[in-house]
Amino acid sequence: MKNTQTTVLAGGVLALLVGATLFTGCMDTGDGPTQPPEAQQSISVTGSTTVLPVAQLTADLFMDTHPKTEVRVSGGGSSVGIQAVGSGTAEIGMASRDLKSSEKTRFPDLVRHVVALDGIALIVHPSNTVGALTTAEVKAIYKGETTNWKEVGGPDETIVVVGRDSASGTREFFHDLVMEKEDFVATQLEKNSNGAIQQTVAQTPGAIGYVGLGYLDDSVKAVNIEVSGTQIEPSVATVTSGQYPIARSLTMFTNGEPTGLVQEYLDFILSPDGQMIVEEEGFVPVQ
Amino acid sequence: MPESTHPEAGSTWLKNLKEQGVRSVWFLAASFATLTVFFILLFLLHDALPLFATVSPLEFLTGGTWNPTGAVPSYGIWPLLVGTLLVTLGAMVIAVPLGIGSAVCLAELAPPRVKAVAKPAIELLAGIPSVVYGFFGLIILTDWLRVAFDVPSGESWLAGSILLGVMALPTIISVSEDALNSVPGSYREGSLALGATRWQTISRVLVPSALSGITAAVILGMGRAIGETMAVIMVTGNAAIIPDPITNLLSPIRTLTGTLGIEMGEVAVGSTHYHALFGVAVVLLLITLGVNLAALWIMTRIQAGYGTEEQGRQRLRVPGLQGKGKLITFLVLALLVLLLLPLPAAAALLGLGAGAVLIHRRLSRANMQHLAFALLWAALGVVLAVLAVILGYIVVNGLPAITWEFLTQPPRDLGRAGGIFPAIVGTLYLVGGAILFALPIGIGAAVYLSEYTRGGRVTAAIRTGIDLLNGTPSIVFGLFGFTFLVIFLNFGVSLIAGMITLGLMILPTIIRTTEEALKSVPDSVREGSLALGATRWQTIHRVVLPPAVPGILTGTILSIGRAAGETAPILFTAAVFSTRFLPDSLGDPVMALPYHLFILATTVPGAKEQQYGTALVLLVLVVGIYAVAIALRHHSQKKIHW
Predict the structure, then answer these.
(1) Of A169, B54, B99, B247, whose CB has the highest number of CB atoms within 10 Å?
(2) Across the interface, which of A22, A76, A87 has its CB nearest the CB of B265?
(3) Do residues B130 and B228 touch, judged by C-beta distance below 8 A?
């Protein structure tokens, strides 16, 4: 048969492909026995993308000082975090919002740990000349009543309203505090992350968006918030002092009081080293 | 459907039992796909139903506002439905002429040398992961549209349609080209012998003869566009509004898939909003099921009416698009143009069309052919240029990020430093697991369909189920994986949940390609084996399966490419942002390249270079896998002669 060769060749490649994936799996589990059998080797931290940078960077440092441990950090959103920690698929759930009543009844044992404070900054394109807005002006923009920058002292340019998706904790907070629970304009562009908002605002001259302080950089310009005549810059200092009006707490939930590695990790975040990372990432320390 | 086993071969009771047992196992495998479709639908429905305690189904479907977290929550998906429809329509306006033009050009005009390059290139276009398209769209396309049309933001219906159009192109081109190639050569020769020009032959004989295949191609492309999630999230702006006026191409828009993709992760499990999202998923699934059923129906009807190669001889009286048909096509097109474009542009376009008709009347046959061929070449040129631009852009920007460290280190500082090694390995794990899950079931199903049955209601139902599973949007698989595997079975976000979800997604591809491979084994080989006294099962696994291995392998590799590039199914089931070590059990979550790129592009500021680097690695991985498949197919086509 002329095609035997092809068959053998093809079969070989297939076996190799499947075998390779299997084998890498085997090799990996082979690493297991080399680790000493300590109580808990890895913890999983999941949830809000806002808290994620703090969790990830503290986790990196924590793992450096605690070799053989692993802290796995993933995003997904506040609800994923609460669901995961409540149902036991993760040890820590990150959230940028409080528990909803339905979540409280489903997971009554969740314990809340505030790890940082976060100011929500209003950002515009760097070319925008508007330097400060009152919360009432911000609300008018997000309600769709103010549609051109010249109405708030800026250039003659249509305002592109950018906000978070309707499941976001940041949006909920903004909705409560700035919008006073009134509806957003329907034409608002909706993004599923702080970074996506920053990206859009950075490349759209007429845009306005809101992000956590950690997402401020040169590509966008933060607008000061005017409170009874004084302009307040969104910064760690103004949030700490309580002057900056749009701020909230970032939390980590555990199912019951934390123990073991989970407690060590949480303690580390609240330690001076951990809180320094909090500050470096643009959040506000709580200790 | 019951097929008699050979009495001589199955002389002993035990042998017969074994034959029956083997047959039953393959029957179960074949039924698996159909059962999965029903199960997905039921499970999504189960999670959607509580919604209707608070919102009536009518209100849900026709309500004009989607605002689940407003002071007064409202769950109307009408704007999302309209958005999905408009984006898909726009994508088709772009993809259909380009796709069919390129297919005709490839099938009829292109010399072998051009074809040898262009065809694999277009297949590679299919291999570009959707998150890479979205990434390109977000950074380049939306910005370009904003400047070009002088609008406040380029995130719009048009951006979504362009991207989806490009993504639908490979499907449309390859299926149409196959249809054109299967038109018997005698048609072409007959037409040319009668003195028709090549263009007349193409437009009056070949294209009408291949119409069933081309229709199927368009509908399959449409299915891809409706179900796409990641690219749409990144470029359409996601404002849940109906464009005002409805023809405003530059208005932001939101689709059903986009809503699922951005809201699912943050929603509180068990809330009304959660159930509403499952309602959206059910509607999306029903729409895609409808589209796919329509495609199947049209294909069987046209096939019954026109026949394929064997029955095709009677059908030289080409029904064609003459007279009434032409007028109707023209009216529909005109209506579309008027609906889609603002008035001045529509008038201009219609004027252009009228002009074209006038020119058409005046032009000599030879000049007509020149014009038509120029347009066909232009279509192919545009498609290849798009490919070159996307690939070029990502390669040029991604190369500086590729270092040894980047490929072998875990990420540090949120992916802004370090590498993507765990993501590469995680992707391989996910894909390997998905293949291990899907391959046995897929091959079993194909063996049953090709060897044990010739028709009947049950077989028809199984086939329909497989086609429907194939048309199910990837985000729906993701949602199903989340509610069933992650929550109901309590697997958590884990490797195993991702593997099964991806496995279900690639199952139809494996079944189809395997079945094709088995079909290409001539019956005489089977008959010979059976005549020598082999049982049916012996015949299958010793005689029929071995020569089909290259075909099966091609299908497997295509599935690997698809699974490696998908983001939506692993978004809620398997992927994590960062792990330092590799997973050491199936219950661990993993990093994956498409998810890593998605997060870098949307969540991590200051990781530009790593974004491009990850996009390039993902691209090389997927495209590399596709290239192997294409080369293998080429190789086996050359080698096997029956």
Answers:
(1) B99
(2) A76
(3) yes
Position A220 confidence tier, pLDDT thresholds 50, 70, 90: very high
Q: Which residues, at least 6 apart from B534, have a Cβ–Cβ distance to it below 8 Å?
A: B9, B542, B543
pLDDT at position B496, please? 92
Cα–Cα distance measured from residue B379 to residue A103, given in angstroms and rounded to the nearest whole number: 55
Cβ(A198)–Cβ(B605) under 8 Å?
Answer: yes
> Per-residue pLDDT for A40 more than 70?
no
Instruction: Please say whether the beta carbons of B157 and B243 come within 8 A.
Output: yes
What distances in angstroms separate CA B5 from CA B28, B359, B462, one per listed residue? Answer: 19, 65, 22
Collapsing DSSP to helix, strand or coil, A126 comes out as coil
The gap from C-alpha B632 to its chain's centroid, in whole angstroms, comes to: 22
Which stretches in chain B have pLDDT values below 70?
Answer: 1-11, 266, 301-330, 334, 336-346, 578-581, 605, 637-642
Q: What average pLDDT does this structure show over A209-237?
A: 89
Q: What letter does residue B482 receive in the DSSP assignment?
A: I
Check residue B383 and give left, alpha or beta (phi > 0: left; psi -120 to 50: alpha). Answer: alpha
Among B578, B569, B582, CA closest to B506? B569
Strand residues in chain A grouped as ranges (E): 42-47, 70-76, 92-95, 110-124, 132-134, 160-164, 189-191, 207-212, 221-227, 230-232, 247-255
pTM: 0.81
Which of B257, B266, B272 would best serve as a mutation to test chain A binding (most A beta carbons within 10 A)?
Answer: B266
Q: A58 to chain B: nearest residue by CA?
A: B413
With H, G, I as helix, E, B as strand and everything else as coil, classify residue B236.
coil
Query: What pLDDT sits at residue B516?
Result: 82
Residue of A nearest to B571 (CA): A76
Do residues B91 and B217 lie in contact, with contact meaning Cβ atoms separated by under 8 Å? Answer: no
Phi, psi of B91 (to 5 degrees): -60, -40
| Cis peptide bond N-terminal to B245, omega within 30 | yes
Q: What are phi and psi of A33, to 5 degrees?
A: -60, -25
Comparing B398 with A169, the larger pLDDT belongs to B398
Question: Would the pLDDT of A148 be above 90?
Answer: yes
What confidence score (pLDDT) does residue B18 get? Answer: 84
Contact B173, B165 (CB under 8 A): no
* From A10, A42, A83, residue closest to B550, measured CB to CB: A10
> Does residue A20 have a pLDDT over 90?
no
What's the confidence (pLDDT) of residue B343?
62
